[in-house]
Design brief:
Layout (H helix, E strand, L loop, with lengths): L1 H11 L3 H20 L4 H4 L8 H4 L4 H27 L3 H19 L8 H16 L18
Helix pairs in contact: 2-5, 2-6
Length: about 150
């Protein structure tokens, strides 16, 4: 438990601005860590599109890394938001939020959309349900007629 006390002590001794920049930097590093192995340039032409699980070959380490990354990102977001709320300058909050959102969007613009395949799956299953009376949870998209353009 002593390392947590040391980390908490260091955290509390920092200014609000420094604490926010720590959250920002760590979040950016996590985004970069998920972008570098799965660059858009390398994976954009994969047919059919794949998701993060398939990109990591359904590995336990890939799952743990993804879960830890998401939990850490949300935690850092909460910490950063808490730091900004305690600040009194509302105008600076909006600027910082816009800046960080733009920065993270820039980083992620080079990343393969690792979870975007869900949209394709939803669209295809909905089309099968609406046009061919296929039950979305029990019918495979392969059950759609071969003549269907999707």
């Amino acid at each position: 438990m002593k390392p947590w006390k040391t980390i908490k002590s260091i955290w509390n001794n920092q200014s609000a601005k420094t604490r926010f920049w720590i959250c920002l930097t760590l979040s950016g590093l996590i985004y970069v860590a998920f972008t570098l192995p799965f660059t858009l340039r390398r994976y954009y032409a994969i047919i059919p599109p794949v998701d993060y699980a398939k990109l990591t070959h359904y590995s336990v380490i890939g799952f743990i890394a993804y879960l830890a990354g998401i939990i850490t990102l949300f935690s850092l977001y909460g910490l950063g938001l808490q730091v900004l709320i305690k600040e009194q300058k509302a105008q600076s909050k909006i600027g910082i939020i816009m800046l960080t959102g733009t920065l993270f969007a820039l980083i992620l613009s080079f990343s393969y959309p690792q979870t975007a395949i869900d949209l394709f799956v939803y669209a295809i299953r909905t089309r099968g349900w609406a046009m061919y009376d296929l039950l979305p949870f029990s019918s495979s998209p392969d059950a759609m007629p071969a003549s269907d353009p999707w």
